[in-house]
Amino acid sequence: MTDTASIRSGARQGHLDGATAIDLATDRPRPTAGPYRPGTERLPLPAATTARLDEVSGSAGVLPSITVLTAWAAVLHRHTGQPELLLGLAADPVTYPATGTGVLPLLLRLRPEAPFAEELARVHAAAAAADTIADADPHTAPPELRAVAGHPGARELREAAPDVALSLERGDGTAGLCLRYNASLLSRSTAVWMLGHCLTLLGEALADPGRPVRELRVQDEPPADTWSLPAPAGFTAPAPAGPGETLVDRFLRTAAAHADRTAVTGPSGTLDYAGLERVTAATARRLRRFGGPGKRVALLCTHDIGAVVGAWSVLRTGAAYVPLDPRQPDGRLTRLLLDVDAAAIVCDPELAERASLLARGRQIVPLDPTDPGPTAEVRPDSATQPDTGEPPTAGPDALAYLLHTSGSTGKPKAVMQTRGNVLAHALTYADRIRLGPGDQVPLLARHTFDAAVMDLYGTLLTGATLHVLDPLLPAPRLRERLAAAGATVLHCTPTVFRHLTGDLAEDAARHEATLGTVRVVVLGGEEAGQHDLRRFLRAFPDGSALVNGLGPTECTLVAQHLAGRADLGGGALPVGGPVEGVRIRLVDADGQPTELRGELEVRGERVAAGYWDQPEVTAAAFGTAPDGTRFYRTGDLVRRRADGALVFLGRRDRQIKIRGHRIEPGEIEAVLRGHPTVAEAVLTVDTRRPTARLVAYVTPATAFPPDAEELGRYLARTLPEHAVPWRVVALERLPLGPTGKLDRAALPAPEEAPADTGDAPNTPTERAVADVWCRVLGIPSARLHSNFIASGGDSIQLLTLLSELQTELGVELDLLEILAAPTVATMAHLIERENRC
């Protein structure tokens, strides 16, 4: 092998005997990239590095190119996270005639924990044996050689142009690294970036060959991102929290400064800041017998101004609020109340009866958000002392809320967030999004979701106006509400964003009339992609900005990215860099720091206090570094781009995102196993359609198979709608692999449409409904009593269905009536009823 051997990297993924071709992230998706377009970048080696390369290589008895190969393998490991790397060595075909094309496939199993010198010896031994692979007898060759010889990526390495090919070039006393790459997939900046990584890691390895590979640096910490979101005229950044300042302190100051401005408006009414301050003070007085520092108060409210009033009222007592979604079944709400030992339930008046059924001895406090109460507030124990808000003991470290997420152990997790952190997150969000008194902010997320925190507090701590809007309105009506509100900031999940913009035409004037006041769109909660960026550029005015970000419930605001036309042509939209006050770190599977790809770890005081009454689960996710810094392991896998921005890759654990909802399969599986007819349960995700769907597989606990329909009803009584599987499939037994573990690949795909009972649509109205139904769901037919959700639909698609029925048949159907029985027969009956009226 010559000293100028190049190192080629396989690109497309393939598997054989555990070996995997390199899956290198690219700047442009492979399906849309053009034909191979060569690019070349060179980087000279400093004279001292060249001398040290020869010295270390000579001491180890290897060619300098093998030392470079070892460093390059370590760099590829950092970029891909793969310990197994299938590379190709470009060899002299005269010296190695067995290779034919002069490319030797080489399988390396890198050990990041091992010293570089040891890995160098292993790479040298593997390279020395590589020329025997082409002639290896598949029956007698060592297993590793058989794996490489038969690997589907080996032929690609020989025949296809590689994504990247590195070579050590020498001449006239100089040396350098040369990277040839596919410029249709990788940008020049990425190629230069990777080449620099190799030079940096090689230098560190040559300086100390005894250091473990994982400790060899490839780059410095990227500089902090300069946030360049334009500010509206007259914007003044909110003052940072003062020493000891509390969440309620800031609210009271904001309410006093903007007393006559509208604070919140919703279906049931409107409150200005003075009215919001008075009604929350009055409600807090009523609550103080049951609330107070160290206590928890449940909040059972619909998506209206009552939820806003209730949250601030509980905070003003010093207690923490626990939001409950009245759309969820009583069984789940009862479990959540028992979990946190709530002292009382604050509720909308129309939910008082239901709250009483759930209370089990707890005090019920109905809200009256339209009654601001007297203008002067006094404490119950003093006729002269004014009520200034929360008790002094409810300071920044006291809890603001406990927000439940799905639990991996079957028990929902209640995230504990402090008041100081809520204030810090809200002020950071307000500063970055440029929120101020002139802004009109829709509240689309319910108070039971962490996404609501940024809008609720970021708005009401800056003098802006909060508009409580139902995101499940048909898209045209939702746009009308946004236009009527004069919305300037739109924060939602990509799912809601797609619902809102999905039926917009190309008419720019129409966009201006419906969404022309929006200056910034903020996406979060699930992955956003190229199609979302294109929708944004099509639907919103040229002066609008798109912000994509990442923020788990355990740390509301972590990273943000200002997206633009420069992001077109890539894959997923980046989630950006860390926001002010938050530090991040990428760690590998062993928890060791890594620079380019790994699990996202959030550091700083803004992470939540842990999970309520689950110390073991808390200890697994939260911790304290040796320097005293708190951290939270998010479970999110990310990679870093050449510009420093982070890109979301998926989850380390089995957690699932469905329409913006975070789901732990363990909770659903535990509920299923709690049914007397179920022995084992496994949850998977069906990805055969653009919208992911949950599928559960169960085995019988008795001599009779479980009834899938009964299990569906059982889950609907226990779990929120988004967590109920689309299909429950009963199996005699779960398929197992050779090691005795579940073989998920062997689980049978569920039928798209199970056998329906009932007649085919017969009347003209029934057939018209069925036609639209099939078009929305992309299915060939629908029976009269088919259930829309069971047929594969979701709440967003149901809204699309109703909108299209209104367009085609001229009848507007009530969503709540449809949800009670979402069938063709029900919809046809309601349409005919409306036509008779």
Automatic annotation (TrEMBL):
- Carrier domain location: 760-835
Segments for region (Disordered): 18-44, 363-396, 741-764
Q: Where is the signal peptide?
A: none
Q: Which PROSITE patterns match?
A: AMP_BINDING, CARRIER, PHOSPHOPANTETHEINE
Query: Which UniProt keywords are present, listed alphabetically?
Result: Phosphopantetheine, Phosphoprotein
Check the record and name the NCBIfam families matching this protein.
Answer: AA-adenyl-dom (TIGR01733)
Q: Which PANTHER family match?
A: FATTY ACID SYNTHASE, NONRIBOSOMAL PEPTIDE SYNTHETASE
Q: What is this protein called?
A: Amino acid adenylation domain-containing protein
